[in-house]
Amino acid sequence: MNYFSTDKPFPRGEIQIRGAVIFNGYYKDEKNTREAVDENGWLATGDIGFVDNRGCFTIIDRKKNIFKVRDSLSSSLIGPYLENPTES
């Protein structure tokens, strides 16, 4: 990934959020909790984006491009189906 805090016109990187309504972690899964939430309570969303001159977030990518669908199909396997849903 080639997104940097020095990018122009807007710095780009992983969006992180923190607040009272953000979850505390995964139930009985300390390893994944540590990967998602840092020691200061910031949740790494996995979304890559930037804040524009109006103060609005724009999401431009995902940190990981694989997602699970039913039986753990990856996006590379499900992509052709989404393009041609009648051909299954």
Write a structural description.
With 88 residues, this protein is of the alpha+beta class. The chain contains two helices and three strands; from the N terminus they run βαββα. A hairpin with a 5-residue loop joins β2 and β3. The protein is elongated, with a radius of gyration of 17 Å. The relative contact order is 0.17.
Q: Based on DSSP secondary structure assignment, what is the total number of beta strands?
A: 3
* pLDDT < 50 runs, ≥5 residues: none
Rg value: 17 Å
CATH architecture: Roll
Question: What's the order of the H and E elements?
Answer: EHEEH
- What is the first-to-last residue Cα distance? 33 Å
Looking across the biggest beta sheet, what order are the strands in? 1-2-3
The CATH class name reads Mainly Beta
**What is the molecular shape?**
elongated
As a percent range, the share of strand residues is 15-25%
Q: Major β-sheet, in short?
A: 3 strands, antiparallel
What fold name goes in the CATH topology slot?
Answer: Luciferase, domain 3
In short:
The protein is α+β, with helices and mostly antiparallel strands and 88 residues long. It has helices spanning 30-36, 75-83, and strands at residues 13-17, 43-51, 57-62. The chain has a single domain (13-83), classed as Luciferase, domain 3 (Roll), CATH 2.30.38.10.
List keywords for this structure.
three-stranded antiparallel sheet; 18% helix; elongated; 88 residues; Luciferase, domain 3; alpha+beta
Task: Summarize the topology.
Blueprint: E1 13-17, H1 30-36, E2 43-51, E3 57-62, H2 75-83
Antiparallel strand pairs: 1-2, 2-3
